[in-house]
Structure formats: C-alpha cells, structure tokens
Design a protein that fits this description.
Blueprint: E1 8-10, E2 14-16, E3 23-28, H1 35-53, H2 57-81, H3 92-105, E4 110-117, E5 121-128, H4 138-157, E6 170-172, H5 177-193, H6 207-214
Antiparallel strand pairs: 1-2, 3-5, 3-6, 4-5
Helix pairs in contact: 1-2, 3-4
Amino acid sequence: MPPRPKTYYHRDLPHWHPPGVSIFFTCRLYGSLPAKAMQELKSMQKLLAREISTLSGLEQQRRRVEHHKKLFARIDAALDKATSAPLWLAKTEIASMVETTLLSKYAALYKLWAYVVMANHIHFLLTPKPSADSFFPMRMILQRVKGYTACEANRILGRTGEPFWQDESFDHWPRDDDEFMRIVAYIENNPVKAGLVKRPEDWKYSSAAERKRRGWTTIRSLT
C-alpha cells in the first residue's frame, strides 16, 4: 500500500491538509511584497509564535489558528495595495490562462467553489475529489496548478527558468459551513475591497463572474 499523504507540515507558515476537506489557498507572485513588508511580517510572526509557546493544549491550537489568520490579513492587505512589482496577473493573456487552468486543466482532481485572479495574487477554494485509496492530496494539486501556470506564464512573458510564484502559499481549511461561505464571500469581494469594481461579478476573472456567465444564482462547484 502506498504511503498516506502528509497532512501537516511547517515551513515559514503552517500547512494542515486533512484528507477530503476544503482548502482556501492564496498564491502570490514572486517578489510581490517589498522587503520592508516582509521584515515586518517576520517580526510579527516571531512575536505571535512566542505568545503561542506560553500556552498549551486546545488553547494553543485555537490561538495558532487566530494568529495564522492575522498574518494572512496583513499579507493580503499589502497585496491589495499592489504597490510593489511584479503585476503579471494583470496581463489579460496570463489572467485568462490562470483562470482556465483552475476551471478545466486539473478539474478531475477537485471541486472548485470560488476563485479570483488579482494583479499579483490569486485566491481559490477547492475540495479534493476521491482518488483510488482516499482523496487527491492537496499538496499535489497545488504543485500541479502552480507548476503549470508558472511555465505557461513564463512562456507568455518570454522568460526561461525564472520564478513566477512565491514558493510558499497560504492555506486554511474552513471548520464549518458558515466559515466556508464567509471564505467564498471574502474571495469574491477581494476586487471590491481593493476598489477595483463595485460588485464581485463585475471582476472578469472570478467565480462570481463565472457563475453569472453560466446563469447560476447559487454557490455550487464549478468543476
């Protein structure tokens, strides 16, 4: 029997992918945050980690999730300002390619519930589909999506062997249906919050716009 996929690992950020659960991902372009912002985030992360180390048991787990969300909020707010290059996802050909990849290239591996393609990052929420022995591993799905889109984007940009995505992505799994729906709303409202459009469905490269194109009025899997 093949080894079971690893469901938790830790790099600069913690990553927890229980089999079969929905995961909210944020992938940002390589170099999309200025050095000053990165240093501030690392300092904040050290302070939060120090606070967590004084706790134990369930309280430590609860606070870890809270702090993870705080870090994400700071990163996302900085990305929404889009004050630091690159902004390759603002190119129509690249944004369209990323959207098509999410909707069709690897659609056999997951159910896609929500997504948005911004100028320097993407958000998406998906659930892995069943595989022969369990569910398709989220880590593998993310590697395929990022790997393919990086190669295609570099081809469009006329680059070879250069990083496109930041290596590590943010992820979080909703603990209940209410949080799931809040994440869908958060993803689709990103262009509105950034002051780019008035309504979520007005942003072309998003699940809100895709549902409108399909004539759907309810949240359902796009793949």
